Amino acid sequence: MKVTVIGAGAVGATLADNIARKELAEELVLLDIKDGLAEGKAQDMMQTAALLGFDTKIVGSTNDYAKTAGSNVVVITSGIPRKPGMTREELIGTNAGIVKNVCENILKHSPDAIIIVISNPMDTMTYLALTSSGLPKNRIIGMGGILDSARFKYQLSQHLACSPADLNAVVIGGHGDTTMIPLLRFATWNSVPVIKFLGENQQKQIVADTMVGGATLTKLLGTSAWYAPGATGAVLVEAIVRDEKRLFTCCVSLNGEYGQKDICLGVPVIIGKDGWEKIIDFELNADEQAAFDKSAEAVRSMNDVLKTL
Ligand SMILES: NC(=O)c1ccc[n+]([C@@H]2O[C@H](COP(=O)([O-])OP(=O)(O)OC[C@H]3O[C@@H](n4cnc5c(N)ncnc54)[C@H](O)[C@@H]3O)[C@@H](O)[C@H]2O)c1
Question: Is the pLDDT of residue 89 over 90?
Fold first, then answer.
């Protein structure tokens, strides 16, 4: 297995570190446009191999895509992150050009790669990667919903004073402060619905805090978070390279599922060696469906901005 991570910044480097520690690839290429950054981080990580006992070879590259040739999976983290007070959507002007250019370069050297998009605004960047590359839709996966679901479980665990590992909870819809939909009705604590243990105000608080989970961290850190995004990206790579058939919320191209078409949005999908293999399309209630439609409307208007760039 060969995996490439584009962007050796906070998220890309953390993701690479997780991939190496889990030995998800024989070779891992870290590429950045900044001179020496990827080489430096690759070498720094390689110096942990003797301590941590992993066998993945990490190669750094300053914008030399020849080094990425033959990658099975490529993860795009290149682009600017938001600053406190910014929305993810405000990044579109800069990041659209970067993501389009990166996709072209990747495919010249790794025509069969599965591409994971992390750069924000992620739903629109995933749509851009799909439409500009013309790749089969199962090979383009946006990472957002798995992270938002992990953040949802964190919020639930704080209120229930329980282990997040015993929780099952998903967030669907867009990966934005106002577009994501934490599905509280379906969340369980070892199969028991969590709403049985939570008052109405607590429920509202958990949903609200989940939705601004990223923004809260951006305010604290002065830039967007990286530990959970990096770890989440690696879990997604793992599901592909180990053909795990995991069920995750990922941003994928919809063709009528959940009542939407010509859009990439977060829904539960099976992830395995072919990328996203199947959408699990279950019936939402009227409020949830209305929230999903509203989320799609917001993401669609962001996708329309691509035409003006
Ligand atoms: N989808 C998610 O859940 C999620 C979570 C966190 C962050 N993000 C997004 O991920 C992106 C990266 O965040 P970060 O905190 O790592 O930012 P960062 O600034 O630390 O790193 C970004 C890196 O991309 C590099 N880069 C810029 N243009 C490039 C190009 N054309 N080719 C190769 N490399 C290029 C930069 O030099 C930089 O090192 C941001 O857009 C952020 O909003 C998404």
Answer: no
